Amino acid sequence: MKFFIDTAEVGEIRAAHALGLVDGVTTNPSLIAKSGRDFKDVIREIASFVDGPISAEVIALDAEGMVREGRELAAIHENIVIKVPMTEEGLKATRIFSAEGIRTNVTLVFSALQALLAAKAGASYVSPFVGRLDDVGHDGMEGIEQIRTIFDNYGYATEIIVASVRSPMHVLNAGLLGADICTIPPSVISQLAKHPLTDVGIAKFMADWEKAKK
Ligand code: E4P
């Protein structure tokens, strides 16, 4: 499974990149706004050191506007993937991008049927938001299982990005269910390598080593 990092903070991306844990990056308008920086500058800087897909989201809500913005963003670097919202206008834009060879990530997907529509429109990636579904009392991971089954049934090449990740359990389940990618916020990435028994084990090895030396 590929790991993308879900942030627009370049320092955080560099830190995870140094660990070899960044196969790609996803951003969204909220994350860009939080960074307080110019959108295109951020995307350009990320593309200067990440060798993988970098999702940049359009702001327009009509297909024509999305296509206009998406073409501009795609021109920044060959690794830019245009993030398009899961609406009828978004599907129209996705179809146009696909015909032009511009890769797309259809975002704000909350059902397997939405994912199927995105795949039919030629999306390169779909982003089902598992955490936001969990937040309202639904099982976000159930949708991942359904999307995997549908894509496998018909041989869709569209890759599944498990998004809106809140905990290491989401990452574990993404792997168990065969998602292609999990896009993970830095706060969750930093939990992945940790286990209390690893710390206990290291402390015991060190103590035994010191004892044997005496
Ligand atoms: C996906 O690409 C989105 O950027 C992201 O995962 C949304 O997560 P949130 O629900 O934590 O905002």
From TrEMBL:
Location (main, coarse): cytoplasm
Entry-linked CDD domains: Transaldolase_FSA
NCBIfam families membership: fsa_talC_mipB
InterPro entries hit by this protein: Aldolase_TIM (IPR013785), TAL/FSA (IPR001585), Transaldolase_3B (IPR022999), Transaldolase_3B/F6P_aldolase (IPR004731), Transaldolase_AS (IPR018225), TSA/FSA_arc/bac (IPR033919)
Listed GO MF terms: aldehyde-lyase activity; transaldolase activity
Gene Ontology terms: biological process: carbohydrate metabolic process; ketone catabolic process; pentose-phosphate shunt
Protein name (Swiss-Prot/TrEMBL): Probable transaldolase
Pfam families with a match to the protein in the record: TAL_FSA (PF00923)
Pathway the protein contributes to: Carbohydrate degradation; pentose phosphate pathway; D-glyceraldehyde 3-phosphate and beta-D-fructose 6-phosphate from D-ribose 5-phosphate and D-xylulose 5-phosphate (non-oxidative stage): step 2/3
Catalytic activity entry: D-sedoheptulose 7-phosphate + D-glyceraldehyde 3-phosphate = D-erythrose 4-phosphate + beta-D-fructose 6-phosphate
Role description: Transaldolase is important for the balance of metabolites in the pentose-phosphate pathway.
Source species of the chain: Trichloromonas acetexigens
UniProt family annotation: Belongs to the transaldolase family. Type 3B subfamily.
Subcellular location: Cytoplasm
Listed EC numbers: 2.2.1.2
Leading EC class: transferase
Alphabetic keyword roster: Cytoplasm, Pentose shunt, Schiff base, Transferase
